[in-house]
UniProtKB/TrEMBL annotation:
Protein name: cysteine desulfurase
Domain Aminotransferase class V, chain residue ranges per copy: 2-371
Biological classification of the source: Bacteria, Bacillati, Bacillota, Desulfuribacillia, Desulfuribacillales
Domain of life: Bacteria
Protein family: Belongs to the class-V pyridoxal-phosphate-dependent aminotransferase family. Csd subfamily.
Length: 388
C-alpha cells in the first residue's frame, strides 16, 4: 500500500520514534505526579524533558506554557473554551476545520459568543480586507488555520497577527497542517496560542496534541477537570499551569513519541522536510495541470502552500476515485470533505468534496509516479462503461 494521506496522520513514523516508544513500553513506568511529593518518577522526568524540547521548538521560555492534549481538536477546545468570555466576538476564516467551527458554533448556540466567518478566495487565502471589516469593539479572539487541510494555502500569519494585536485582540493559530514543515516560533508569528496535532508532521502517535500558550495570555480556564496527582487534598482543580489543563493519566508513550519526533525533525531540518514534500507536490502539479479532465484546487506550487493537493476527475465521485485507487492500485488517499465543509463551500466542491493527496517525508519518487500513472489511467477511462 502506498500511503498518501499524511495530512490525516503521518505514516510511517521515523524508526527512532517506533524504537523510543517500544523501549518506553518495555522499560518505562509510572504516571507523572503520581509518586511521592519529593521524588520524580521516570515518567515525570520524561514528560518534563519533552516539554523542554518543545519550548525550544516554539521559541518560548516557560515549560508550563506547553500543554499536552489528546489531539489538535482537544487543544482547540481548550484554547477556545478556556479563553472566551460571555459577550466576546470571535472571528474565523472560511476554511477552518470542524474542530474550530464546531466548538465555536456550540458556544454561539449557548449564547456565550458571537461569531463571524470571513470569506477566503477560491485558493483558500483569507480576504484580509473583510477580516479587518469584521472587527467590532467586542472582538477578542481570531482563530486562523495556518495551512488549509483542503487547499494547502498558507496564510500570512505574522502580518495578520501583528494587526490583530494592534486592534487589541488575540490570535489562536491552528497549526495542525504546518507543525513540522514550517517554523513555528511564537513571537515571530505574533500569535498568542498555537495548536498542533502531535500525530501529523510532528511524527508522534495518534492520541497526541499540543496547546502552546503565549506570554500575553494570563488567564485560561480548564475545560476538563480531575486528578492531576498534585494537591489531591483540594476539591478544586489546581491553579498552576500546565497541571490545571492536564487532568487524567497522560498519554506517556505518546509524549515519548513526540519527543522523538521533534528530535527527528531537528536532525533532518524543517526546511529539508518541507522541500522534500514540496518536490512531490510540484511533480503532482506538473503531471496533472494540463490534463483536461483533471481539476486541481488550491494555489500553484510557487505560492505559499504546503504539500496537500485536492483534485477531482470529471465524471468521478471523489469517494469512487479514492476507492479505485485503494482497491485497484493500492494507494491510500482521502476523499470527501476532510472535516472541512466551509473550505469546500469556499472552493466550490461542497458537498461531494475532493480527493486529497498528501505526500509525506517518507514517500519516494516511485510512490508519486505510481499515483500519477493511476490517476491518469482513471482519467482516461470512459465512465459510461463503468456503469455496466
Ligand atoms: C487544519 C486541521 N485542524 C485540526 C485538525 C484536527 O486534528 P486532530 O485529528 O488531531 O484532532 C486537523 C486534522 O485533520 C486539521 O487538518
Amino acid at each position: 500500500m502506498i500511503y498518501l494521506d499524511n495530512a490525516a496522520t503521518s505514516y510511517p513514523k521515523p524508526e527512532m520514534v517506533n524504537e523510543r516508544v517500544i523501549h518506553w513500553l518495555e522499560t518505562g513506568s509510572g504516571s507523572p505526579g503520581r509518586s511521592t511529593p519529593t521524588s520524580l518518577t521516570k515518567a515525570d522526568s520524561r514528560v518534563l524533558q519533552v516539554r523542554k524540547q518543545l519550548t525550544n521548538f516554539f521559541g518560548i521560555r516557560d515549560e508550563y506554557r506547553i500543554v499536552f492534549t489528546y489531539s489538535a481538536t482537544d487543544a482547540l477546545n481548550l484554547g477556545i473554551k478556556g479563553f472566551v468570555e460571555l459577550g466576546d466576538h470571535v472571528i474565523i476564516s472560511a476554511i477552518e476545520h470542524n474542530s474550530v467551527l464546531r466548538p465555536l458554533r456550540h458556544l454561539e448556540q449557548a449564547g456565550t459568543i458571537s461569531l463571524t466567518i470571513v470569506p477566503c478566495d477560491s485558493l483558500g487565502y483569507i480576504d484580509q480586507h473583510k477580516l479587518w471589516e469584521a472587527f467590532t469593539p467586542k472582538t477578542r479572539l481570531v482563530v486562523l488555520n495556518h495551512a488549509s487541510n483542503v487547499t494547502g494555502a498558507v496564510q500570512p500569519v505574522a502580518d495578520i497577527g501583528e494587526e490583530v494585536r494592534k486592534r487589541g485582540a488575540y490570535l489562536l493559530l491552528d497549526a495542525a497542517q504546518t507543525a513540522g514543515v514550517l517554523p513555528l516560533k511564537m513571537d515571530e508569528l505574533y500569535v498568542d496560542m498555537i495548536v498542533c496535532a502531535g500525530h501529523k508532521g510532528l511524527f508522534g502517535l495518534p492520541g497526541t496534541g499540543l496547546l502552546v500558550i503565549g506570554s500575553r495570555i494570563e488567564k485560561l480556564l480548564s475545560y476538563r477537570q480531575g486528578g492531576t496527582g498534585y494537591n489531591s487534598e483540594s476539591e478544586y482543580q489546581p491553579v498552576n499551569w500546565p497541571e490545571k489543563y492536564e487532568a487524567g493519566t497522560m498519554n506517556i508513550p505518546g509524549i515519548v513519541s513526540l519527543g522523538a519526533g521533534i528530535e527527528f525533525i531537528e536532525q533532518q531540518g524543517i526546511e529539508q522536510i518541507a522541500q522534500r514534500e514540496h518536490q512531490h507536490l510540484e511533480r503532482l502539479w506538473e503531471s496533472f495541470f494540463q490534463v483536461p479532465k483533471i481539476q486541481l484546487y488550491g494555489p500553484e506550487p510557487h505560492m505559499p502552500r504546503v504539500a496537500v493537493l485536492s483534485l477531482n476527475i470529471e465524471g468521478w465521485e471523489p469517494d469512487d476515485l479514492a476507492d479505485i485507487l485503494q482497491h485497484n492500485y493500492k494507494i491510500q488517499v482521502r476523499s470527501g470533505l476532510q472535516c472541512s465543509p466551509l473550505a469546500h463551500k469556499t472552493i466550490g466542491t461542497h458537498p461531494e468534496g475532493t480527493v486529497r493527496i498528501s505526500p509525506g517525508f517518507f514517500n519516494t519518487d516511485d510512490d508519486i509516479e505510481n499515483l500519477v500513472d493511476a490517476i491518469k489511467k482513471v482519467a482516461a477511462t470512459q465512465v459510461d462503461w463503468m456503469l455496466f
